[in-house]
Request: fold
Amino acid sequence: MNKYTKIFIVLLMLPLISVSAWGRGVASAEASFEYSTPLVPQKVVFCGKTIDLTRFDRHERMDRELLAFTYMHSTSIQMVKKANRYFPIVEPILKANGIPDDFKYLMVIESSLNPNARSVAGAAGLWQFMQTTGREYGLEVNKNIDERYHVEKATVAACKYLKDAYDKYQDWIAVAASYNAGQARISNQFEKQLVDDMLDLHLVEETARYVYRIIAAKIMLSNPSAFGFRLRAEDLYMPIPCKEITVETGIPDLAKWAKQQGITYGLLKLLNPWLRDTFLQNVSKRTYVLKIPLAEGMTYQPNKVVVHDKRWIVE
Reply:
């Protein structure tokens, strides 16, 4: 064996030595890793209905979604942080419209709580409305204004959709599934498959996973530390305090208008993502309310963070 062969063998062994030293502190060809899996509950409650998860297929479907939340760390942690900002806005709207509070978790999985989320199919906003559906439920959607990105208005529109679906199914689990698959498809499958429980339907994978993902989001956001996410109060994102300015005419230059309000164009768009252009056209002479961040909310102040749900943090 010549010296070059020896060098080559040593180089091949280096990754094994390095991994082992990191895992055990000794040079060995094997590394030891520890993984955890969240406990799949025997039953869960969604919108007041108890769902039995002891049947093997339901157990394994639930296990898959809980594992997904556990090991997509950065996304899951950001969901908890952002929930502190958006849940206080969304929860009262759901309650005022008679929609179960658990539907906020549908919003979580739709957009990962990103108000600027846009799918490859063109669904947009926290509730991921398609253009046609958004317009059908009262949202203005065009190149200048897109209220699918308006947190409050999109939530009201989602409530209208969910109420319409409940009138048809009288079952909130079927309503949740229809948000993904469409009411026609869910109704069609109920007729074809001769079952009464939505969770017994054989559906395409995305829809089959959908309700379990919503429930997994509820479980994770009810106890993040069980998933290994240990957040402090100062880690959470605060709602941004704003003043509201009502406008009934167009704004030809939003950058100039923002400067007149003492903020940047970027901050104006951040707080009003439904403004989709550099100007507000307003040909129809509608009334719009624009949010302007207040000076006291512009600076990160960890000692002033208000925790919306104490289960999200560890002391």
The longest strand covers residues 242-247.
